[in-house]
Design brief:
This is MotA/TolQ/ExbB proton channel domain-containing protein. It is a multi-pass membrane protein. Keywords: Cell membrane, Membrane, Plasmid, Protein transport, Transmembrane, Transmembrane helix, Transport. It is a single chain. The chain has one domain. It is an all-alpha fold. The chain is rod-shaped. About 85% of the residues lie in helices and about 0% in strands. α1 packs antiparallel against α2.
Length: about 90
């Protein structure tokens, strides 16, 4: 589970890079002076930035969520094993 948690962060970062590539692919420096071409370029830029930010957010939030669950499961596992040992000791008697 810890490996999955780390992988989520990496996937979020890969999504960020893809988003930046998408954002910059719509920018044509040669048309930057053309007023009619600016609108579509800005639109493509915003779409790419949204992808970048959303993938970073999702990767980070899922990583935090998974790490919290790992902590809860670790604590619950220790408590379960402790209880099983205690029940076994009570039934074994002196």
């Amino acid at each position: 589970m810890r490996q999955i948690s780390s992988t989520l962060v990496i996937l979020g970062l890969i999504g960020t890079v893809i988003g930046f590539i998408m954002a910059l692919s719509g920018v044509d420096p040669q048309k930057a002076g053309d007023v009619a071409a600016i609108g579509p370029m800005v639109s493509k830029l915003i779409e790419g930035m949204a992808v970048a930010l959303y993938t970073t957010l999702v990767g980070g939030v899922l990583n935090i969520w998974l790490n919290i669950n790992i902590g809860l499961l670790s604590g619950a596992t220790v408590n379960l094993i402790t209880e099983i040992v205690a029940v076994g000791e009570r039934h074994a008697g002196p």
